Amino acid sequence: MLPVDLARDTLAACRARGQMVATAESCTGGLVTASLTAVAGSSDVVDRGFVTYTNDAKMQMLGVTKASLDAFGAVSEQVAAEMAQGALAHSKALIAVSITGIAGPGGSEHKPEGRVCFGLATPSDCITITREFGALGRAEVRLAATEFALKALRDQTF
What is the SS3 assignment for 116? Predict the structure, then answer.
């Protein structure tokens, strides 16, 4: 179920700051944007959402570099930063959040199921964080990542 109440709070906070929002989503597949746009009147805050599930999409739509993907992998703070900055650069937004992770099932010793990297970009800054949600199952990891991203947009920090 989409976290509509949290999305409503997030929209109100961004609206109060005069910020349009863009998203760059991989493992969440558009759930952050869907949550925001489930709220009537969200069009004054939500500019656009990018669902970039493949590495090619990340490079083509957001400007993520092949060098970063080769060196760090798609599930990395480096790529999350480039995704958030790319969403900002390719939109009219003043804040962008990115999500890239391993929802499961599966993963590896080095990148386990439930690891999700986030980026939060504004015109003056970009911060990143990695969260280990654990092997909750695909749907629960995606929902937890969506809620975390909405709170980051609301609070303008991680």
Answer: strand
Q: Taking every pair of C-alpha atoms in the chain, what is the biggest distance, in angstroms?
A: 44
Phi, psi dihedrals of residue 23, rounded to the nearest 5°: -125, 150
Please give the model's pTM, rounded to 2 decimal places: 0.97
Q: What is the pLDDT along the chain (158 residues), one digit of tens a residue?
A: 789 999 999 999 999 999 999 999 999 999 999 999 999 999 999 999 999 999 999 999 999 999 999 999 999 999 999 999 999 999 999 999 999 999 999 888 889 999 999 999 999 999 999 999 999 999 999 999 999 999 999 999 99
Cα separation, 101 vs 3, in Å, equals 19
* C-alpha to C-alpha distance for 19 and 82, rounded to whole angstroms: 20
In degrees, rounded to 5, the angle at the alpha carbon of residue 122 between the alpha carbons of residues 82 and 55 is 20
